């Protein structure tokens, strides 16, 4: 009972914290994107545009809720809710600090990959239930992409798991504390594993350059074409949460989580997560997108073999030398 | 692996732009200076006696491709200021919402009686506010800065010279050959550093 | 009726979709008039087998404004601001094409300074138009919420410099109405040449950055290479001109082959690529941008003195009367050969009897049924972007 209460309270706190960080994230993205494009970004809503997320959310929530005729009503309504739930669910096992963790599972990595993999389902539900050919195309591409990129994601995550010998995320963070507080050392296979993880995380969150399912210029808005108002807000926030949780996972698995050279604690985790989050947006606003068959090419012909090689290298490192 | 170097180059380019000054400004707190010849709205200026300069010759009404100008004149009458007979325009309506800003009405006016001004009209909620009548157009001449173009100047600029003319005669003081900017204007355009 | 030409063998645009053997049902997708990437209101019916296009049918006419009919009702001197709005991305080209036709009809010779001014404006307009092409193309490839929009805004930032220059000359940032029968209406203000050269230098530097994010970027190259290959012979049969034709290996440029304005006194290096795919067209346009900046600089430095108009200035709408005659004049607009055919006479000698505008984008779009089949939906967007259609001049 104690564990259940602990999980519930901390889970609620973490979920609320994530959603609040999203608000700041929206503002940061708009400003950052604006500066990259030689313009100012939001300036009118509040000082320096800080109230822009409030304006965005109010605008989205007050829109009319339109359901297309002949749309599969139940799936249509369920998809955005599931998307947010899956994204928030993965945050349950991430250690934000030695005490703040909603549920310290022994198989945290498997849990994260499993719940994260469930994201395919709301994506395709949205694509199918919209009764719209553009959404259908987006949904089909989303399935192919999400399922395919799950493989390099698993392989990349297997590298710190192999190096540390445990599937629990807080265990991996603890192992990193003992070894230069990062799993990017040893550089081979650590650094390529991180790059692989980053690319796979981008693909799983449907971020540019892998955002073919919601390719706005080809498919209007892809799977979210027919969504308006509150449901679209849920999808929008679900995307942000997915990215944020992916960055948090990357920070925990590869950069030492809450540990640091001095005074370990929550602030390190927050800093690293936000840094990765910023890099995701930097990449988003600089690159073009891949075509779907090129995306699949990259996944199966490059990332997966490299991932397998990296896991073998990690295993060799553990067996024959390195820090035991 | 070319993907990574190209990605790095693209990322470096965007990061370089983050540290450049943004080229956008917070309109309407900051207004970019416009060129001297910028044409936005219209004005009917006064002549040297303080009366409206327009004599209602209908040239601008006839030339307008969108037919936005409508005016009414009722023949010559005595001027209250100079006492001489002259033509007046009694009603002048310019529908700014249909205007295509082609400057042809400015071009054909031989009396320099219609000019363009460099500040646009304020957007409003009523369509009627964009239909400029005589009062509004005369007010514009006092409130807004006139653009450089004027009928006589434009026609002068386009006139193929018959003989060598050292300087044109009738334009604003300190007149210069046709390739120059006419003075007595708002501040010349400052090119801002990009 | 089949076109007897090298149409890549198997593609017959009149193929009935029932004759196509698909593995499953074909999906009909309306790439409808409301779409973020159709470059204006334009519809394509795509028959898709999975994600591959089997047949593409373009539909135009959504932006038809009866411009040519309007031109029969307005007088010769009133027409320049009307045709400004055809190819609304390169207004200088429209104005020049129209006035060249009228000058031919009336037998007027344009003074030398006016010809050089027109050349200068045409080249700067070409740079501005190609910047818009690059902006729209990367939006298509990269999304309005992503890397494409970054390059979009960078290109527009450079184009603002050119628009500011034009604003100093004519008073308007767009739709200038600065040309007239017999020459130009506005001459250059003092110090314009220096400012223009500074702007040209800055644009030349920034094009390096644009290339770093597009032409030299592997993702861009992958999206555009081998996509939408257009055969040179087919392009000639369809009447395609401009960068689309030059990207398919045909060396044809009106500035060099049928010189007008001041091109007989300036040297024009024509950019030609042989691959015929979207990447070749992109390369042609980048090289044309650099070439145009060079020509613009030469035009500024070599600008002769003199009058800018050899016909009387516009004083009344009925100033020009033509009782008979016809003329066709064409120039190389950023999209290809933009021509105006005018027949004078009829009931009202002050208005043209008939004005026909030969728009290059219409011919570029006619290649769609030939080059789309075999491409995926993502490629369809890239191909449409590389053809660079402007619906204003397609539909008029």
Explain what you see.
- The complex is a heterotrimer of chains A (324), B (194) and C (396).
- Chain A is mainly alpha-helical.
- Chain A has one domain.
- Chain A is built from twelve helices and no strands.
- Chain A has helices at 2-36, 52-61, 73-90, 108-117, 120-129, 133-164, 169-178, 187-204, 216-219, 229-254, 266-284, 292-320.
- Chain A is globular.
- In chain A, 51% of the residues are buried.
- With 194 residues, chain B is of the alpha+beta class.
- Chain B has a domain at 39-158: Alpha-Beta Plaits (2-Layer Sandwich), CATH 3.30.70.3270.
- Chain B is 23% helix and 12% strand.
- Chain B contains five helices and seven strands.
- Chain B has helices spanning 2-18, 59-63, 104-108, 134-143, 151-158; strands at 41-43, 69-72, 76-78, 85-87, 91-95, 115-117, 131-132.
- A three-stranded antiparallel β-sheet of chain B has the order 2-5-7. Chain B has a two-stranded antiparallel ribbon with strand order 1-6.
- The longest helix of chain B has 17 residues, at 2-18.
- Chain B starts with a helix and ends in a 36-residue tail after the last helix.
- Mean pLDDT of chain B is 79; it is low at 164-194.
- By secondary structure, chain C is an alpha+beta fold.
- Chain C has 15 helices and eight strands.
- In chain C, the strands form three sheets. A three-stranded antiparallel β-sheet of chain C has the order 1-2-3. A three-stranded antiparallel β-sheet of chain C has the order 6-7-8. A two-stranded antiparallel sheet of chain C has the order 4-5.
- In chain C, helix 4 runs antiparallel to helix 5 (147-170).
- Chain C is globular.
- The model of chain C is unreliable at 1-9 (pLDDT under 50).
């Amino acid at each position: 009972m104690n564990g259940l209460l602990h999980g519930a309270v901390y889970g609620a706190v973490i979920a609320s914290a994530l959603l609040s960080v999203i608000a700041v994230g929206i503002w940061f993205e708009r400003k950052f994107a604006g500066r990259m494009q030689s313009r100012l970004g939001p300036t009118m809503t509040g000082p320096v545009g800080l109230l822009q997320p409030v304006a965005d959310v109010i605008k989205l929530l007050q829109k009319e809720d339109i359901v297309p005729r002949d749309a599969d009503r139940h799936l249509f309504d369920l998809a955005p809710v599931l998307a947010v739930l899956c994204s928030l669910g993965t945050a349950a096992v991430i250690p934000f600090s030695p005490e703040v963790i909603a549920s310290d599972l022994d198989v945290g990595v498997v849990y994260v990959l499993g719940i994260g993999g469930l994201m395919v389902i709301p994506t395709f539900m949205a694509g199918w239930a919209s009764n719209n050919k553009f959404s259908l195309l987006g949904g089909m591409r989303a399935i192919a992409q999400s399922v395919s990129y799950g493989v390099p994601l698993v392989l990349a995550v297997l590298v710190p798991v192999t190096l540390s010998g445990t599937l629990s995320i807080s265990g991996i963070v603890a192992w990193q504390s003992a070894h230069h507080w990062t799993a990017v050392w040893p550089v081979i296979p650590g650094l390529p594993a991180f790059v692989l993880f980053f690319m796979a995380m981008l693909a799983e969150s449907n971020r540019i350059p892998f955002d073919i399912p919601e390719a706005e210029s080809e498919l209007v808005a892809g799977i979210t074409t027919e969504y308006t108002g509150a449901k679209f807000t849920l999808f929008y926030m679900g995307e942000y949460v997915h990215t944020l949780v992916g960055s948090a996972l990357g920070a925990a698995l590869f950069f030492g989580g809450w540990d640091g050279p001095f005074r370990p604690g929550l602030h390190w985790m927050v800093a690293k997560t936000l840094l990765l989050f910023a890099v995701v947006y930097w990449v988003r606003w600089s690159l073009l997108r891949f075509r779907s068959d090129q995306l699949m090419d990259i996944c199966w012909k490059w990332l997966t073999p490299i991932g397998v090689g990296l896991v073998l290298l990690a295993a060799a490192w553990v067996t024959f030398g390195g820090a035991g | 692996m070319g993907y990574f170097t190209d990605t790095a180059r693209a990322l470096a380019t965007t990061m370089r732009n983050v540290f450049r000054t943004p080229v956008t400004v917070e309109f309407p707190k900051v207004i970019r200076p416009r060129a001297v010849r910028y044409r936005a709205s219209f004005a009917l200026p006064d002549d040297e006696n303080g009366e409206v300069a327009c004599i209602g010759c209908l040239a601008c009404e006839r030339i307008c491709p969108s037919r936005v100008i409508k005016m009414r004149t009722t023949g010559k009458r005595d001027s209250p200021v100079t006492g001489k007979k002259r033509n007046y325009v009694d009603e002048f309506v310019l529908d700014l919402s249909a205007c295509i800003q082609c400057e042809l009405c400015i071009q054909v006016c031989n009396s320099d009686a219609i000019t363009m001004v460099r500040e646009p009209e304020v957007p409003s909620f009523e369509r009627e506010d964009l239909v400029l009548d005589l009062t509004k157009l005369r007010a514009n001449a006092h409130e807004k800065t006139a653009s450089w173009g004027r009928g006589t100047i434009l026609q002068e600029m386009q006139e193929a010279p018959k003989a060598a003319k050292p300087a044109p005669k009738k334009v604003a003081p300190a007149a210069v050959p046709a390739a120059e900017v006419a003075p007595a204007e708002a501040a010349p355009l400052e090119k801002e550093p990009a | 009726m089949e076109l007897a030409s090298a149409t890549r063998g198997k593609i017959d645009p009149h193929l009935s979709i029932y004759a196509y053997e698909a593995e499953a049902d074909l999906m009909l997708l309306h790439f409808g008039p409301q779409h973020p990437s159709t470059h204006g209101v334009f519809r394509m019916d795509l028959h898709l087998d999975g994600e591959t296009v089997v047949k593409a049918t373009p539909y135009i006419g959504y932006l038809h404004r009866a411009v040519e009919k309007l031109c029969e009702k307005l007088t010769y001197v009133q027409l320049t601001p009307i045709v400004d709005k055809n190819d609304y991305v390169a207004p200088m080209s429209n104005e020049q094409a129209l006035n060249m036709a009228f000058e031919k009809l009336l037998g007027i010779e344009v003074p030398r300074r006016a010809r050089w001014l027109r050349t200068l404006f045409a080249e700067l307009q070409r740079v501005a138009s190609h910047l818009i092409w690059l902006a729209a193309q990367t939006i298509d490839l990269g999304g309005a919420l992503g890397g494409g929009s970054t390059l979009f805004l960078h290109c527009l930032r450079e184009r603002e410099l050119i628009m500011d220059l034009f604003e100093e000359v004519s008073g308007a940032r767009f739709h200038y109405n600065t040309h007239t029968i017999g020459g130009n209406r506005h001459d250059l203000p003092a110090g314009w040449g220096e400012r223009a050269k500074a702007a040209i230098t800055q644009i030349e530097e920034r094009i390096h950055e644009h290339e770093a994010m597009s032409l030299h970027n592997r993702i861009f190259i992958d999206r555009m290479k081998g996509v939408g290959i257009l055969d040179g012979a087919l392009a000639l049969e369809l009447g395609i001109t401009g960068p689309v034709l030059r990207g398919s290996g045909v060396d044809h440029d009106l500035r060099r082959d049928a010189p007008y304005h001041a091109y007989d006194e300036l040297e024009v290096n024509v950019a030609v690529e042989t691959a015929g795919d979207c990447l070749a067209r992109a390369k042609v346009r980048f090289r044309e941008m650099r070439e145009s900046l060079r020509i613009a600089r030469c035009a500024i430095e070599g600008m002769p003195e003199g009058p800018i108009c050899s016909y009387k200035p516009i004083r009344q709408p009925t100033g020009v009367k033509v009782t008979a005659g016809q003329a066709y004049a064409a120039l190389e607009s950023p999209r290809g050969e933009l021509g105006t055919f005018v027949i004078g006479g009829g009931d009202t000698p002050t208005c043209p009897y008939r004005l026909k505008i030969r728009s290059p984008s219409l011919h570029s779009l006619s290649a769609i049924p030939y080059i789309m089949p075999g491409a995926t939906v993502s490629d369809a967007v890239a191909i449409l972007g590389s053809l660079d259609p402007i619906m204003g001049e397609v539909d008029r």
